[in-house]
Amino acid sequence: MVMTQLTNLSPRESKTVSPLTLITLDLDETVWPSESVLKKAEEIQFKWLQQRAPRLTASHDLDSLRAHRRLIREQYAEIAYDLTAVRTTSLRLLLKESDDSPDLAEEAIGVFLEARNWVTPYADVPPVLEKLARTYRLASLTNGNADVQCTPLKAHFHFSLTPCIAGAAKPAPDMFQQALEQAGVEPHQAVHIGDHPECDVIAAQQVGMRAVWINRREAPWPADLPPPEVIIKDFHELERWLFQQIKI
């Protein structure tokens, strides 16, 4: 496999159409940073719980809630792929344990999810997606629980898939295969963009799609994995790479 590192490349002019018709994109750390958003969403939810479930918050803080979710993922393998289901199950159990109403769990998750969607895309993303959406079908494939239709990028995506919808999380092939079926394209007509070497790049390649590794943090590629075909630092480089795929 030939690895292409994009730097200082100029778009090639062409009037023909690229064979690529579908672009699938990861969300967290690909189109927006998520660490601070998740932290803020959990803090907002915790303040809500302090008002509605005081016995729970008297015995748990944010760290112990995270630890309990990790335990739930280990104990409930059947829902481990669905982060929202894990959060809901964990809260219901803890609410019951603390003699607060377990029925508060769903409302508390709603509070969390609303804040979870208060994302700020990387500056390079919106202008490039706006242009790409005119030529390609764009789909988001995320293992997280952000709803792209509730974010500033909603106008650019034709459809979105999550573990809850697909019934599995990346690197399982389900989400990629469902995206291909929904778009009505063959694997060679699609490319996936993501930041995770295994869940995004290798997983997409294993279903026959092309894959682009976005490496915003200039991290080293795992030595035990075959090298990626293409590495980009931002969406401007993605746009230039897509221009290069147009056959003259």
From TrEMBL:
InterPro entries to which the protein is assigned, alphabetical: HAD-like_hydrolase, HAD-like_sf, HAD-SF_hydro_IA, HAD_sf
NADP among keywords: no
Sorted UniProt keywords: Hydrolase, Magnesium
GO BP: any one term: riboflavin biosynthetic process
Cofactor(s), names only, from the UniProt record: Mg(2+)
GO molecular function, one term: hydrolase activity
Pfam family, one: Hydrolase
SUPFAM superfamilies linked: HAD-like
Full protein name: HAD family hydrolase
Lineage: Bacteria, Pseudomonadati, Pseudomonadota, Gammaproteobacteria, Chromatiales
